[in-house]
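Quick one:
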Amino acid sequence: MFAGHFGVAAAVKSKTPELPLWSLLVGTQLLDLVYIPFELAGLESIEPIGDGGYSNIMVYAFYTHSFIGALFISIIAAFLAKIFWGKKSGFIMGSVVFSHWILDLIVHRPDLPILPGNAGNFPLMGFGVWESVTATLLLEFLLLAAGAILYFRYTLKSAVPERRGKAIAAGCVMTVFLFASLGFDAFA
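Output:
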């Protein structure tokens, strides 16, 4: 799941205008962004399985995508957001960052550990919606559609009448961006 996370960002922006949209978009992908240096260091990896097509991967992100690791990253993001945008925004940002792990739990095969490094060797978690490309794309489409509708309504409602045209344009651009990210997901 890649695109569905952006749908969450758009939906949250519609309810929390004080948070910049860029921060929400980055927040929904923060676990994957933190994953990059871990992969470069050889601590985490992604391996293709089967034909290696859409969602045919095993993710070995035992630090950044562990339950506790995701919680830790979310707390740091919440703290930073609190400094820049206030206490309420900090809580919201922490929740947005952690939403990534929740959505990954739904779509991933059992590859998400509870503790960093899979300490304790507990069973790995994941409900495996990725096993069905159709179900995965439908879930992502629904998240994107909800985010796009809520964001579009927010831009129209918050615009003063003389800027309504710009608000419509902004809503359209965001909608195109959201659904273009779904295309990226489908062909990645």
